[in-house]
Design a protein that fits this description.
With 389 residues, this protein is an alpha/beta fold. It has two domains: 4-56 and 365-386, Urease, subunit C, domain 1; 59-351, Alpha-Beta Barrel (TIM Barrel). 26% of the residues lie in helices and 28% in strands. It has ten helices and 20 strands. The strands form four sheets. The protein has an eight-stranded parallel beta sheet, with helices on both faces. It has a seven-stranded mixed beta sheet with strand order 3-2-1-4-18-19-20. α5 packs across α6 and α8 (322-331) runs antiparallel to α9 (336-343). The protein is globular. The two termini are 21 Å apart.
Length: 389
């Protein structure tokens, strides 16, 4: 394919803003990016006039269970492809498929099949999001803060159980969420870090001191902050107190107006810098689908008014897409560049792939979102190829 020159009103890299920007794309990567006046077009380049739009990096969702009626734990190429195609239309060009607590044997089967589907996703890469790996959400979770994770499938953390999961995942495990106060958590955190996983604290009844011990061992992230966590108290601030005050920890948040009210989002923004907050969807199979009945792993969920709940009425994931999350943060007064950073560069950096994903820079994958003035997604490019919207 000939090079593609995208001329935008501005580009948010997102660490800097380039006015009147030209992004030159070739072979799926960004060949160069600079002000239009500073770049000469190569012969034969296709030109896209997008001067009325703003360019930002494609979003990276590190916590998503499903979309388009399909669930990650189906673990088939068809399910993964449907999820990848759906989220790409909303600007998410990379994601980490997230599991939900299930029996050991079922989890291992799902991980094996997910690994195979990820390895074979080449056919979907042209116009869909890229699955970067697997996020293990459970089964090492607190029964007291399990959310909708089935109580019968929760187990104590152990390096031995983790080793089985890692073997089944065949090198594609990227993130482990666990409750750090549980017996065996310390040894499991150490084993997970040795295996190169990001360790997140989540679904946890941890005290402040429990959380700090986990951070000292290498936990560096917090799953869906405020949700499925011991509530904050001025005398025992719990895990939330540790997350809000320790700069070593990044915090992901579900900014859908359901999981977290705006005052709590403002508190998070005041306590953490823009570099330490990640926007995630926690999306389920109900994403971009009508109200009705769906599955989250083995859990039956009902969606009404776009809100997912289980039979007990507990919130069960979301129908959020990251373009909506970016708009919500911008609506709270967050500069668009910072909101885009929370959805792109920050999650890529959490995974250690910020040289390739989550930024508009020479040599990075050509994952590009073009916003209109209303911050709606106008066009999306995934590794240099345009996504049909």
């Amino acid at each position: 394919m000939p090079p593609l020159a995208i001329h935008t009103g501005r580009a948010l890299t997102p660490l800097a803003e380039i006015p009147d920007a030209l992004i030159l794309v070739e072979d799926g990567q960004i060949r160069s990016i600079s002000p239009r006046s500073a770049m000469a077009l190569p012969p034969g380049a296709q030109q896209l006039d997008a001067r009325g739009l703003t360019a930002a990096p494609g979003f990276v969702d590190v916590h998503i269970h499903g979309a388009a009626g399909r669930d990650s734990m189906e673990a088939t190429p068809e399910a993964l492809g449907a999820i990848a195609g759906c989220v790409a239309r909303h600007g998410t060009t990379s994601f980490v498929a997230t599991t939900v607590s299930a029996g050991m044997a079922q989890t291992e089967r799902s991980l094996e099949s997910l690994a195979a589907a990820i390895r074979g996703q080449t056919a979907n890469r042209a116009t869909a999001a890229e699955c970067l790996g697997i996020h293990l959400e459970g089964p090492f979770l607190s029964p007291a803060r399990r959310g909708v994770h089935p109580a019968e499938h929760l187990i104590a953390p152990s390096p031995a159980a983790l080793a089985k999961f890692l073997t089944a995942a065949e090198g594609f495990a990227r993130i482990l969420t666990l409750a750090p106060e549980l017996a065996g958590a310390a040894e499991t955190i150490t084993a997970a870090r040795a295996a190169g996983l990001v360790v997140a604290m989540g679904h946890t009844d941890a005290t402040y001191s429990d959380a700090i011990r986990a951070i000292e061992l290498g936990a560096r992230h917090a799953a869906h902050v405020f949700n499925a966590m011991r509530p904050f108290s001025h005398r025992e601030t719990g895990v939330i107190g540790a997350v809000l005050t320790d700069p070593r920890v990044t915090a992901e948040v579900i900014a859908d107006g359901v999981h977290v009210d705006d005052p709590a989002l403002r508190l998070l923004l005041a306590a953490k810098s823009a570099e330490q907050i990640l926007l995630v969807s926690d999306g389920t199979a109900a994403t971009e689908m009508p109200d009705g009945n769906y599955r989250l792993g083995s859990i039956e969920v009902t969606v009404a008014g776009g809100v997912c709940r289980n039979r007990e009425g507990r919130i069960a994931g979301s129908t959020l897409t990251l373009d909506r999350a970016v708009r919500r943060m911008a609506g709270l007064g967050v500069p668009l560049a910072a909101a885009a950073q929370m959805a792109s560069f920050n999650p890529a950096r959490l995974l250690g792939i910020e040289s390739r994903k989550g930024r508009l820079a020479t040599g990075a994958d050509a994952d590009i979102v073009l916003f209109n003035e209303g911050l709606n997604v106008s066009r999306v490019f995934a590794r240099g190829r345009e996504v049909p919207l």
